Amino acid sequence: MRRLVAVLALLLLTGCATWSGPPPAPFTVPYGSSAHTLRVDGLDRTFRTYRPRSTAGARALPLVLVLHGSLGSGRQAEQAYGWNATADRDGFLVAYPDGVDRTWNGPAADDIAFVADLVAAVGAAAPVNLARVYATGISSGATLAYRLACETTLLAAIAPVAGTLAGPCPDPQPISVLHIHGTADKIIPYGGGPGPSALELAGFWRRVDDCPRPRFSTSGLVTTTTAICPGGHLVVLKAISGAGHQWPGAGAPGAAQPGAAVPGPVVARLRGLDPPAGVLDATAAIASFFRLS
């Protein structure tokens, strides 16, 4: 009965995404890190979760979706970006979905339906607050985060890193957005092409959220544009001068899990990533933003 209620609640929250059936039984979300499989549109879709032991007894936990970039994976994202340690500190669940063939937004699979099913399955098996589901991601994962904001009402906020919006977004609902981007990104350029620029994206979501004129501030190499909007929404752009296509702060002390295989410069280059900028801890900034959203 609890699972049925959670599924019905999710269906009321989603836009175009649809529930494609109950998760394989038994489905549980144990404490610690674990691997899972869901059958979605005839495909076995995989993901990992992290449930802090410190959340035992909690009734309604936020859920953060961390979407890897091209050639990455859920396991790689779990190891590299420090979200498990942040979940231990702040008390939320994390899910790390896997794209088909290590990427997103392709024709081979319905990633929107997959994410919707994942949220419903995790929400049925653990005490998730469906009003506090968030998504972040890098590169193609950031693009999927924007698609989720455009095509569903699953999320309370998104935080794309080094990404852009691909395709139309005709009828988005108000949502909080934090966009982080290096100004020297050559893979998905800060100035746009293909896709809108980071400044254009911030302007687009300010119009969606009916925001007033933003405030600007600069700290070292990081320029922040902040709009405080009706309904408690925020639209924030953090531009990192001279930074490339990377997750800022990845590999810094405390950013990765103990013993994790953090991508070195050679592996990062193979994935199309530049060495991470040390002037901003993106994971900490995003977690703080989600707490406010």
TrEMBL record:
Coiled coil regions in record: none
Keywords: Hydrolase, Signal
InterPro entries: AB_hydrolase_fold (IPR029058), Esterase_phb (IPR010126), Plant_Biomass_Hydrol_Est (IPR050955)
Molecular function, one GO term: hydrolase activity
Signal sequence interval, chain numbering: 1-19
Pfam families: Esterase_PHB
Source domain of life: Bacteria
Stored PROSITE patterns: PROKAR_LIPOPROTEIN (PS51257)
The protein's name: Alpha/beta hydrolase family esterase
